[in-house]
Specification:
alpha/beta; 49% helix; elongated; 2 domains; Arc Repressor Mutant, subunit A; Rossmann fold; six-stranded parallel sheet
Length: 225
């Protein structure tokens, strides 16, 4: 079965170009195209696609509609993956996208669109519950930390299990239940993870998301329920 995709992009030429590009792949079926936030949400409710491929900025505000749509769909259509396309390589956009978990979410720079294999690969990965983050975004986060990605090698097996659960967007109580540990034990593991990854001085939500991004950058995959 092909991956059913709803695509949102306010620029008509880009929208039609990407649609035609995707139509050339037999593994993808574009079931609807949209030009703004409201029509995107309506199309998802109507078509129930496997994945949404959306620009980050669209009417009505031209700010962060793609990010807001991803957050809204996490509640209303949790089985629908979302790949956000952006011309901006600012890590904060990726942090916002993954704030509620990395499962079924992707963030790619628009320059990747010309590579059909890469784009379809991202859609396929997100459709099955995985995550795809543009390498330039991860590089920016690593550079900002001034630490090498190998910092993940310092984590114990249990800490990596906790980080994998964090990548699903679980809170401490849910992680404790999944791993049959106390919440206090989970808090200790998470604090240790933050310390080893050099994330001790940032806001808690950003520490969690940055830790998840680093986990994904080395091939980690959120567990699937």
């Amino acid at each position: 079965m092909p991956i059913r995709v709803v695509m949102a992009e306010d620029n008509f030429l880009i929208r039609e170009g990407v649609r035609e590009l995707l139509a050339s792949d037999p593994d993808v079926e574009v079931v609807a195209t949209c030009g703004d936030y409201d029509s995107l949400i309506a199309a998802v409710d109507r078509e129930k696609p496997d994945v949404v491929l959306t620009d980050i900025r669209m009417p009505p505000t031209e700010t962060d509609e793609g990010i807001r749509a991803a957050a809204a769909l996490r509640e209303t259509n949790p089985d629908t993956g979302v790949v956000v396309l952006s011309q901006y390589d600012e890590p904060d956009y990726a942090l916002a996208l993954l704030e509620r978990g990395a499962r079924g979410r992707g963030y790619l720079l628009k320059q990747r669109v010309s590579d059909l294999d890469q784009l379809v690969g991202a859609l396929r990965e997100v459709a099955r519950g995985g995550s795809v983050i543009d390498p330039k975004i991860v590089e920016g986060l690593v550079s900002a930390r001034s630490k090498a990605p190998s910092a993940l090698d310092q984590l114990t097996a249990r800490e990596r299990e906790v980080l994998e659960e964090m990548a699903q967007g679980k809170n401490n109580a849910a992680i404790a239940g999944a791993l049959v540990l106390t919440e206090r034990a989970i808090e200790r593991h998470i604090n240790s993870i933050f310390s080893k990854l050099g994330l001790t001085q940032e806001k808690d939500v950003h520490r969690r998301v940055k830790a998840v991004l680093l986990f994904l950058s080395e091939g980690g995959t959120p567990g699937r329920t």
